[in-house]
Amino acid sequence: MVKKINKVGGAYFGAYSSSGKSSSNKSFSPVLDSSNRAIRGLWKRRNVFYARLSLSDHFGRKNQRRIPLKATTVIQAQAELEYLRKSRTVPAQPKSSLNWSDYWPSYLASIKQLKRPRTVNSERLHCRHWDKLIGKLKLHQIRKVDLLDFRAIKLEEGWAGRTVNLAFTVLGNVLSHAQDKGLIDTLPTTGLKPIRWKPKKRPLFASEQIDAICLAALQNCKHGQLLADYVRLMKTCGSRASETLRLKWSDVDWKRKQLIIGSDGLTKNHESRVVDFNPALESYLLEMNKRKNGSAYLFPAPRIFGEDAPARSLREALRKARDIAGAKGFGFHDCRHYFISHAVMSGIDFMTIAKWVGHKDGGVLIGRVYGHLNDEHAKRQARKLRLS
């Protein structure tokens, strides 16, 4: 198996993917000869061959460069690589007449079938933010100083460091796409480091507060039962809001006592996962099962022309219920936060929690964000210890 080699000096610091999907299409792979050995200096990415050489530009300056080749076969690529080694000059790249605003829609079109609609929409929003500063610049005219100006302006406007980083990642994605097309030679994002940021500490809502929201929904909202079931289920299994809405009764494995999240492949990382029943989760599912109305979905939308579909959004109902309950700022993600926090404080290992909630890092993020809860819980337990 050929090991993937991460790109050096490419996009800002990796492919943007709120879906969590691996950025394998953003990495270079070594090209192998007929003996299955890597050919030195020859790489491939997205079906494009690249030569990596120390070359002199037209001003005599030497740089380590990856140069996109015109070759379509390994033999052609080797011949082109040898030619470059002998000439030791960078082949002239045609300067694109396209400016930033002209080009980024074609990039979005290229990823439409590869990423979730939500991710594509998010990248579109970031591209439009870049329009204000570099929209009229030709792709090859975008300089690092322009990017630093953007960063300074956005931080001054109050953007969070994470949001600025995402904007730069999207910029890198678009420019890398242009480089693959041979429209630009170098990336102005090379060498830029992401802003260090600390995640905001989310308030941990108590179980009583969440129950009050559910009660307010039942008493005051048109779809109160649906909202109450939705909140209670996320609170007890840690699923994301969009994943939960798409759950079907076929995802509930009563025999194995497991809930399958993402059987449709539309999770953040495009993989399904299993959440083992805990007593509260099983209890809520049994209650909901008694109220089934014939829909395949746990949270069905009102039927229009007989079509069975999941509910699209319950945000309006949530806003009304939380205002009545006095739980200012509560959002659906707080249910997931509640589940992870209480799992940590219950002493469950980070790797198991990560598996339940769909983190692919084996619990590293949970340890970083929630680890202090485990420490605090251990201290509280230690104070209860009585030794003679």
Structure write-up:
The strands form 2 sheets. Strands 1-2-3-4 form a 4-stranded antiparallel sheet, covered by helices on one side. It has a 3-stranded antiparallel sheet with strand order 5-6-7. The relative contact order is 0.09. Among the domains are: about 80 residues; about 180 residues, hpI Integrase, Chain A (Orthogonal Bundle), CATH 1.10.443.10. The protein is about 45% helix and about 10% strand. The chain is elongated and about 75 Å long. The chain starts with about 30 loop residues before the first strand and ends with a helix. With about 400 residues, it is α+β, with helices and mostly antiparallel strands. It contains 13 helices and 7 strands.
